[in-house]
Amino acid sequence: MDFNVKKLVGEAGTAISRLVQLTEEKLGTSERTELDSHFENLLERSDATKMWTEKLLKNTEAVLTPNPGYRVEDFLFEKIEKKRPNRLTNLEYLGLDMMEAGNVFGSSSPYGSALIKVGQIEQKLGTTEREYIGAVNQSYIMPLRKFLDGEMKTIMKERSILENKRIDLDSCKNKLRKARSIQGQQAAQKDGLNPQVVMEQAERELRLAQAEFDRQAEITRLLLEGISSSHASHLRCLHEMVQAQANYHAQCHTIMQSLATELANASLGKSSAPAAPQPSVATMVLGNEPRGKARVLCDYQANDSTELSLMADEVVVMVDDDPADAEYVIAQRGSQRGKVPRVFLEIIS
User: Which residues form the SH3 domain (predicted)?
Assistant: First the structure.
């Protein structure tokens, strides 16, 4: 118990001494030990690395998980070391709704069957997105968070210790300076102390403080210089994230191109199907009129140079039936002429 009291008194004395030194530095009545320019540059780079790594980590998480509530939930699960909940992505929710709507409208109807098909693809995109999020989390987010929670925390802790050692060193310098002054010697004599003994004690304390400061400065310098290795590691992580992002977008592009082709082929397949006993939509709309004007019902992209691309609601002139395919007519817009599927047109004159 006696030892603890002495330790507590010693720590209190050190804290008071540091407070006095800081106050005198603020007032400009005491000198401050300055670090060399290289060390200062290392400190500035450390501060910049910490600030920007935190920003990059936060923004990357916001891109991958836009819902802030989910981000807080994930953070809490990580802190208590529990597995994150396996949530559906927005694309997967959209896919489920599309499939449900398609079943309601009728899977045999053109719109209903298309909704079901697109919904299945949206779910596939959602699965691909979850795989991409997991890949980026492993390759980029986790290494950056590990750096901040590990190496950077150690650096900040050692920097704090270095600052305390610097204050102790300057306090000892100030103490020795006062002991060597005439006023200090007079004060020592007044207190019944030997001025020479007081100066020797101050010199011993200064040498000890200088040694501790130098040792801590070297430890901190080595940690700060290690940030270069961290940057190299983060560069590799960045490359992995970019590759994961490129793969994700390439997969999405391939999936959507396949879907667009499938929907287009399904539409063409229906338009070229054999005529049923009942009159077709094209026959009911256009009949067998060889000439006249028609309004475009929806956009149409020409498949080759013999066809004419159309935009919804524009009016074209029907020149004649296509002799090679009864489901097409020859249409003209200004000086442009080409084949157009009948189902995309509505006769107006």
Answer: 289-349
